[in-house]
Amino acid sequence: MHQAPGFLSARHRRLAWLGFVLSALQAPVSARLVDDGSWLFSLCVSLMVATVILADDALRRRPVKTGATE
Q1: Which residue ranges traverse the bilayer (predicted)?
Q2: Residue 14 lies in domain
Q3: Does residue 70 form part of some domain?
Q4: Is residue 67 domain-resident?
Q5: Distance CA 57, CA 5 (A)
Q6: 51 with 8: CB under 8 angstroms?
Q7: Residue 48 needs a FRET pair 20 to 30 A away by CA distance; which of 17, 20, 58, 62 works?
Q8: For the chain, where are the E strands, in sequence order?
Q9: Predicted TM-score of the model (pTM)
Q10: pLDDT of 2-15, one tens digit each?
């Protein structure tokens, strides 16, 4: 059984993971160093990128229908 291609290419997928890791690591660092709530922006960006990665994973895990339809 074949897997469906996701909407992210391999390069975009790697960049999304890099962006997720960097923004997820930046959030607690800026929370400790900055007194205001601007670290929440990094947290929101991390959650949005994680949602895109999860959606791409879900699309890739779907089986591809091949052959004649029944």
Answers
A1: 36-55
A2: 10-61
A3: no
A4: no
A5: 9
A6: no
A7: 62
A8: none
A9: 0.77
A10: 566 888 998 999 99
